[in-house]
Specification:
The chain is mainly α. Helices cover 47% and strands 0% of the residues. It folds into two domains: 133 residues, Helix Hairpins (Orthogonal Bundle), CATH 1.10.287; 69 residues, Cytochrome c-like domain (Cytochrome Bc1 Complex, Chain D, domain 2, Orthogonal Bundle). This is Menaquinol:cytochrome c reductase cytochrome c subunit.
Length: 255
């Protein structure tokens, strides 16, 4: 009688016949072509990410954030400006077919196509080649996107009046102002408040007068003869009124 005769063996596919240890595959036959995802590739990614993160943290410690003054909803002349990494989208909305009645195209359609293409890139380009020269479509679209981003950012920076922007967003120290004084009443009556603000904090057309560092004679000379964008002849009144106004402005200091 033969061994095992008349017996049936039932196998279970859930139980592997040969147990293999959980170790990376041997890629020695393909040097420089590929490597194990864990831990080789992932460790490199973590190291690069750590270097950039530490560098970014050092920058945040070394440079204070360029904060602006508290938002004023009544200041209709204020021109908002996004951070540098969104300037290209900000510039895009200035063009004819991406603004006005076509805002939806500039705000959603074009950015949606660009970022959607990035997300779908692994599915749209599934070729095995890794050299950019062997993937002309993907390489061309990426270069086009990078060039457009750089160009729009440059245009936005070039077209922005940075002096005006700095003046609009400057944090001005608060000052204790006696609004019942003769000097402040003259400040209102002569129209200074329209350019320099109710609390001498400045505005789109005039600089802040708090802690201006000017003496009385300098202020009188500017009020009569003007300076920079302020034209001459803005003050109309007697010498006594000019003296009182200049003394008031010269004495306005922050708390």
């Amino acid at each position: 009688m033969h061994r095992g005769k008349g017996m049936k063996f039932v196998g279970d596919s859930r139980v592997p016949a040969v147990r293999k240890p959980n170790i990376p595959k041997d890629y020695s036959e393909y040097p420089g072509k590929t490597e194990a995802f864990w831990p080789n590739f992932l460790l490199k990614e973590w190291m690069v990410g750590a270097v950039f993160l530490i560098g970014f943290l050092c920058l945040t410690v070394a440079h204070e954030p360029p904060l602006e003054r508290i938002a004023d909803p009544t200041d209709t002349a204020y021109i908002p400006l996004p951070d540098w990494y969104f300037l290209f989208l900000y510039q895009l909305l200035k063009y004819s077919y991406a603004s006005g009645p076509y805002t939806i195209i500039g705000a959603l359609v074009i950015p949606g196509l660009g970022f959607g293409a990035l997300m779908l890139a692994p599915f749209l380009d599934r070729g095995p080649e890794r050299r950019p020269s062997k993937r002309p479509v993907a390489t061309g679209l990426m270069l086009l996107g990078v060039a457009a981003t750089f160009y729009l950012t440059w245009e936005s920076v070039d077209q922005t009046d940075w002096e005006l922007k700095k003046q609009q967003g400057a944090i001005v120290a608060e000052a204790e102002i006696d609004k019942e004084s003769e000097g402040y009443l003259l400040y209102q009556e002569k129209g200074c408040i329209g350019c320099h603000g109710e609390n001498l904090e400045g505005g789109p057309a005039g600089k802040a007068l708090v802690d201006n560092g000017l003496d009385v004679d300098q202020i009188k000379d500017i009020a009569v003869n003007g300076i920079n964008t302020m034209p001459a002849g803005m003050f109309e009144g007697s010498d006594e009124e000019l003296q009182a106004l200049a003394e008031f402005i010269s004495g306005v200091t922050s708390k």
